[in-house]
Structures are given as C-alpha cells and as structure tokens.
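User: Could you check the structure of this?
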Amino acid sequence: MIEGAYGILTGLDIVIRYNRLDVSAEIQNDEISQLILGVEFQPYSFIEKRPQYRFVTDYTNRDLKNDSFVLQFHFWY
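Assistant: Sure, the predicted structure tokens are below.
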C-alpha cells in the first residue's frame, strides 16, 4: 500500500492510495489492484467523513468492472 495526502484546510485532506493484492504467489497474473481517490473531512472533533472512489483492476478478468464509491463515517472518543 502506498498513500499520499494533502491538507487543503484544517480538517480537510485529499487522499490518494494504491493497494495491490497477489492472491496466490504460485499463479501468474492473478493480482488485484485498487487506486483510491478520496477526501477526509473532519467537521467536528472525533467525527470524520471519508467519501472515496475506488478504481479496481482484476488481472484475471480485465473485462470485469468492479469500481465502487465508498462513504465511510468514523466516530471515536
């Protein structure tokens, strides 16, 4: 995983991340990779919203469109 973030304002960051998973080391060309573009927004203390779009590449089935939009909420204290 490789991740980079850039702070635009206090509590607002742009994030880009790349994930790669090799399902089996013994099988060639069975990797799955994700390019994730998103925003991390903290409107209040201990509350975070993370809208993200994930571009997924499945090397075993290149015709499969498995991209997704993910909206996460985090609460902690």
